[in-house]
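Slide 14.
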Amino acid sequence: MGTQFDWQTDVEEKWEKLEPTSRPVRKRRGRVPPLIPLFLFMAALAAAGLWQINRRVIEANAQATEAVRTVHALIHQAIRSQDIELLRTLIARPNQSWPEMQIRLIQGQLYLDRSPLGLWALPLNETTPITVTLAADLQSAYVTTDHPYMAITAPGTTVTITLQHTAYYQQQQAYWLLSPLPADDFWGPTQTITHTHLILTYPRRDEPISLRLAEELGSQIGRFCLVRHCPADFVLHLQFSPEQTSLWAMQDRRQEQVAQFRPALYQLILPSPTLVGLPVDETGYQAVQYGYTTWLINHLLLQQQSWAVTAAAPTLVADVWPNANLVATKPLPALPPLPEQTILAACWDRNEAAALYVYDFAAATWQRHPANELWVGERLSRQRLQFLILPDDATFLIWTETVAQNTNSQSRFVRQYWHWQGSEGRLLWQTSEAYPPDLWLKMLPPLDQTNRYLPLVYPITEANQRTLFFYHRLPWEAETGNLSPPLNEPPTWSPQLSYAILSGRSGSLTHINESDNYRVYLDQGHSPFWLDEATFGYVRYLTGETWSETELVLVERLDEWATRLQKEVIITGADLVAAAAFYGEQGHIFIHQVIQSPTDPAILLILARTFSHGMVEMSYLFTLNIQTNQLTLLARERRLGEPIIFSPNGRYVSRVTYEAGYWALTVHDLQAGTIQQWPASLVNTIVWQQRYDWSQDEQWLLLAANEMIRLLPVGLPLTANSQEVSLPLPQAGCYAVGWLSP
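Slide 15: predicted structure.
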């Protein structure tokens, strides 16, 4: 094989046999093949394209992350304010039951609070860690939040801990919506661990903490069975459920324990640790473990009533489990001191004469007010009594209405208006008119903000049953009291009482100069208000007719007589629709009423409505800062209750609402952006103007309920709304209450 090939090295090669070419070949140096620049250009182009794609991906991720953060924050804001209408727009509907469960948890204060386990959510702050993890397709995201909690770790002992919550959002039709946590991808399959007296099932996601809890809870059951003779071979089947129904079932301890306990299986279902909130440190774990243990021991104590128990067992239970039978109760903040004011109440009943009462806090008793002597002896078939406390909180107006004659078609009334100041009262006006019974509960309309004029209700018996308003000066001056009736609203006076805006029956607005009674027609509209002596505003009817489309106009008077005016439109119906756009509103929103802050004339409340076939379809409450032109939607409801009242210093806005058969008293904190709400227990057929009143220090609301007089603390955490002071009624049927200064 070796002789078949003739190998030669380069050295052995005979170079002389090569013949030279006719022209020597010049070696090319420095030239680049023509394809290399093209290759480099294409590479640079690809790199630029890749950079552009990466940049767009980064921007898309940033935009999606910010959108998810915004929706997450909006949901927490809606939870704080109990804005159920807003929440419904932010929750996905994979089925009918899931979104309704979220609403039930929020309304039951179980969406964040875990009160059955002794855990109460504290407000988030700006430094609270919030992590958004987007899916690769940018169609879904997980949001983890480290939420602070107040927790019970022993009877009477509380600590602040941190629990981590996970929320899941999906993009549906360009909107990010809160969605159920994916069963397979997030929770994973169900796992089981067996202890001597415990079989625990849990989702795989909770395996680390579940294994630790199983040891502790199993040991507690073993200790329990040493004290209380458990049935033979007793084993508790405990399930850590990822379903939110397990949270809802915990709202009633006894109901949950009985419903979930099956004697043949000894089964108990509790929410999984991730659903409760995962502790981030040992202190948090101890609080969560204490909550589970407390629930478990109470559950066993409830069920052991059918077991054989030794005589010494009750004593031993108290020694071994100091938390036995503990009902987790959140330590409530101290109530503010009661105001140094007197409570005034007006009461009447079919079987008792109407009377005014004052409450003596020192003696803790009701006493009849001296004003009752004004109508002594007028005990007739029925009587109505109302009062209106003036803003100085020291004087008030009294309105009495007595039925003198009652038939199937008409009732004859004697109506009197009194002015009470100090220790004296005097009759301002009296009338006896016959008019249909459906008008007999007409209440005293509000005074103008300066209290210069007293509004008197004067009914007329025209076919449309209209009621006109006359306004008279205080103190009463018969010869100068009448101010060009009829008017639709009280005159609106400038701060120094030099000018006024009059609102006529047809919606016409007139500017009046008080010094010489010089009048100038302004426009068609309603709800005038003043910023200073030279600037005022009003709601304008665009077509010049009542209930036409409206806009808010600000007017500067360029001369004393208002013959030259400079008008500026500051809010239109389109602006209101845009402010409510999150709810998908379209069409027209009409301004119904404007209310001015008592301390800052640039802050306005705007009550607006939409109409369908002549009926109110939806009501809205906005705040407007004229100086910054900031328009904020406070509430959107199908029935937005009135009266809507500013607190004395303008921090709060209160209103009475009625929804689905329930009355509620709602308070908006304009400074903190939160809402408090109390069930009001009002009489459904009668809502008087003086049903509730603010104390001068803005810390208490006074409410006339069906069975009692209620004093409600304002500004406490929402979970402390159960704190209040109740007073017995001085007599049956107290429908008006108010704070009087000493």
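Speaker note: The chain has eleven helices and 39 strands.
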